[in-house]
Amino acid sequence: MKKKFQSALAALAVSTSLTGAAFAEGHGAPLSGDLVIFSDMSNPAPRAVMEGMVAKFGEMHPDLNIELTVIDREAFKTQIRNFLTANAPDVTNWYAGNRMLPYVEAGLFEDVSDVWEGALSQELASTKGALTIDGKQWGVPYTYYQWGVYYRADLYEKYGLSEATDWATFKSNCQTLLDNGVKCFTIGTKFLWTAAGWFDYLNMRTNGFDFHMALANGEVEWTDDRVKATFANWRELIDMGAYVDNHTSYSWQEALPFMVQGDAAAYLMGNFAVAPLREAGLGDDQLDYHQFPAITEGVAMAEDAPTDTFHIPSGAKNKEAAKAFLKFVTSADNQTAINAGDALGQLPVNAGSSVDDDKFLREGFEVLSANSPGGIAQFFDRDAPAEMAKIGMEGFQEFMVKPDNLDKILDRLERARKRIY
């Protein structure tokens, strides 16, 4: 039977009060044995958060031996099926939406619906649909975050630019920057997914959220004129020379110095980019954020807000401890702490958590809770099936380098759509 997801993220509902109920639940019984955790939280700030959670959980359960293995985030994506199949850990990081579907269908993820029972189901309601397949929950969320345009406020001020709310201003800002020897956007497309962020926003702003999700679900042909309109808008930026050169050679981190050094003015990225930009020396007076501008009049604003998750492999050996760890991860006070501006710098999912007093988190929360009436997407490589996402992102990267290849790219994507769905 074909698996069906429940509706995607509902409206955000994060209160300013804390509750310890979810945190305490499930921690009364002593835990022992080994708890093996594989994590993809390999960048410095996320790694510190992961190590901190393990240390805290270990203090709560002194008879439990916790073994944490942190794997490079990109390598993790290619290794997960192998380690889920042979010698699985007890807990692993992954993602919500279609990204978890193959592992659920293959019987490699454990049904954790019992972890969601009680108050937790309401506290995590905003992401429950993204973690539900066939009425069961297959993981738990620990963070989600806004995407948007992060920009050098000092460069905008220097050249008399304002935050763009429409497509014409977006392009005119870009032209002013180019006229002054500054690239409009940095990007590193070596691992493809950064190009998907551009496609998501351009398509949602050109055609709307419902069309975008229908395309991701295989219900629209890639050769459709509406898809071509999205790429036509994208080509306007490409033909201007908006992006840094040789971006296929860079990871997203390797593209950061262009913005730090002032060679590029902005980055379309998730809020996780703020920490390394700050660490590289940019102060909050130099760095700012705005929502991706409107393109087609009347199309409701929609956003990407990816949800990162923890799962229990079906081959886990200590499922009791694994479920207790998932309850700990989702507790209100833990999610407040790990999503703080000096930690992950993202948004907690638990409705009992507090949003940190960080300007980027406040702006992101405002965008997601009050200015995204069109809907909330997970991200192209989470909303589309894995095989389609890979082929699509290869096409996006190719288009950014060789836009004249568009017809060939769309024909290739359409053949893949007919085969995959």
Automatic annotation (TrEMBL):
Q: Keyword annotations for this protein? A: Signal
| Species of the source | Actibacterium lipolyticum
Q: Return the protein name.
A: Bacterial extracellular solute-binding protein
Which is a Pfam family this sequence falls into?
SBP_bac_1
Q: What is the lineage of its organism?
A: Bacteria, Pseudomonadati, Pseudomonadota, Alphaproteobacteria, Rhodobacterales
- Return the PANTHER family for the record: ARABINOSE-BINDING PROTEIN-RELATED (PTHR43649), BLR3389 PROTEIN (PTHR43649:SF14)
Signal sequence annotation: 1-24
The record's listing under Gene3D superfamilies reads: Periplasmic binding protein-like II
What Gene Ontology terms describe where this protein resides (cellular component)? periplasmic space
Protein family per UniProt: Belongs to the bacterial solute-binding protein 1 family.
Compartment(s): Periplasm
